[in-house]
Prior knowledge:
Mean pLDDT: 89
Low-confidence stretches: 1-9, 352-358
Number of strands: 6
Number of helices: 12
Distance between the termini: 39 Å
Order of helices and strands: EEEHHHHHEHHHHHEHHE
Strand content: under 5%
Shape: globular
Structural class: mainly alpha
Strand order of the largest sheet: 1-2
Largest sheet: 2 strands, antiparallel
Amino acid sequence: xxxxxxxxxxxxxxxxxxxxxxxxxxxxxxxxxxxxxxxxxxxxxxxxxxxxxxxxxxxxxxxxxxxxxxxxxxxxxxxxxxxxxxxxxxxxxxxxxxxxxxxxxxxxxxxxxxxxxxxxxxxxxxxxxxxxxxxxxxxxxxxxxxxxxxxxxxxxxxxxxxxxxxxxxxxxxxxxxxxxxxxxxxxxxxxxxxxxxxxxxxxxxxxxxxxxxxxxxxxxxxxxxxxxxxxxxxxxxxxxxxxxxxxxxxxxxxxxxxxxxxxxxxxxxxxxxxxxxxxxxxxxxxxxxxxxxxxxxxxxxxxxxxxxxxxxxxxxxxxxxxxxxxxxxxxxxxxxxxxxxxxxxxxxxxxxxxxxxx
Length: 358
């Protein structure tokens, strides 16, 4: 078994407990919001759909899904150290992201209990799902002699404030992109079972349905607040969050492609497919989608990928900090320029889209 204490980025808080990864612009965030504003929302314009989604959540289709089976009861020493390090890094990022959702949904469920019981129960049930996901991932880390102290993360990780409407945009896209990420990996490994290096990936078929249901909830919430997905302001925010979510995912994955390459995927092709499918899905609720078929879309993201690699190299160099700032400045300006040009690209009208085949 790899001695994770000696691996880069695997510093330990105490034996067997990994120190949280250094926070960057690309790392998973913890969020809080204006709970009073959320409590005042009138959901009556789409209450029927929200009640239908609540019944779906109550059904708890995955109640018995996240149970470790005999395939986990083995040593993973046959995997080389680099592969083990890649798996642990993937598990940490995924666990942190799922746990972030759990904390936000749990607090929303608690805060809305008296003012809006329907929403409160939806959030509480979604927090149940996210708790299962994060717990399953954290248990998987223990197969590699490592785990996360989730209580420590709760108390010590920086929280980012998002207004409720921003929570809706960002979380809707996060859940839907999660669906496409998981189902794409699952389908790939069904076709290439020899590439399934760890049993966790077998669980992705049912897992992604949780992501899909959560995304449907936020879809219904935005439809209950039609001003969020209509008018000039709504169109501009939808474009912004589509670009932000797609851009962060693409740059992050191309910076850390190890897990995808390890299971036989081409990271660029995988990310481009997931982005295109999520963009198509978003057309069910967003009034516009991004023109991801325009060759300039991914060309400009590739510039950001290369800039980010240079930024990382500068940050990890022995160059004095004040000189690092000067060397990073033109790269950051370039990234900002690329994202501005991407944002100003003519979007696709999406209001007429009636559905997406999964």
